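Extended Data, panel c. Modelled sequence:
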Amino acid sequence: MLVSDVHFLGQPLPPLNISASELTTTSVTLTWSHGNTERVQSYIIQCRRKYSPDNYTDMVDVLTNQYTLSALRPDTMYEIRIVAINGFGQSQPSVTVDFITLTKSGTLLKLIISQNTEDR
């Protein structure tokens, strides 16, 4: 058993079924399912540029299971993950979801939306 597989009583599980839609040059709308029997107080959306050696940045703490992430760079590949929070602590990060913002001209050169389990 790996440490990442440990789930403490009351601690939330990671969100499920994350999707990226409504892509623009500087934003993306994220949605996900609750995936918990435990009460969740909020979610933290973590983001970084794909293939970056940088750590994930906590972008926002939200109360719902949908959010439009903005202030992104055009024509850039990102990876996001989401963490659930409750009074007992936080979940492990969700699987990552990759997406590419539109170019400055508003076209999409390529669209890659995938869920990776090895990056958790």
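The chain has no helices and nine strands. This feature is highlighted in the accompanying rendering.
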